[in-house]
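Cross-check.
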Amino acid sequence: MQKSRPFGEATPTIPEKVVTAFGRMWRKLLPMSTLIPADRDGVHDFDNCQRMEMADERTRSLQLSKYYCTERTLEIKAELLRLAAESAELKTELDMTAEPRRQGAIRRRRAYLNRRNDELKGERAALAAELQVASDGLRSASQSAEAATSKQLDGRTPEA
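Predicted model, tokenized:
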């Protein structure tokens, strides 16, 4: 007995690879329209289905990349603020300290903080570039999906 699905959850589609591998069996068990989308003439387009699956995977990958870049950029911003605050505290402590050993330790710590600051700024720049690529990719995917939808709608006659 199959488990019931929560309301609104779509039934999974069968990938084209499975259809190809077990084509005869699936064609006997399931109507073809449930496996591969058909164009407006009722002709099933296997290549288009594969392109749609690849586009979905690419879109999902771009969305995850965009999400990661956004979240990591916020973490980096918080870390940069923390480093700046710690460096400022050490600077005031360095100005007030007369002991040479303590001054050396403070200078070493500030040098580390400056290196870490530079690393984070480089990572932030790389994330900004990756975020731009992901945003551009999602925008182009959205535009191509809209173009495909309008192309399908252009072939239909408006119902009165």
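Residues 16-35+44-133 form one domain. Helices lie at 16-21, 23-29, 46-96, 100-154. Passed to J.P. for a second look.
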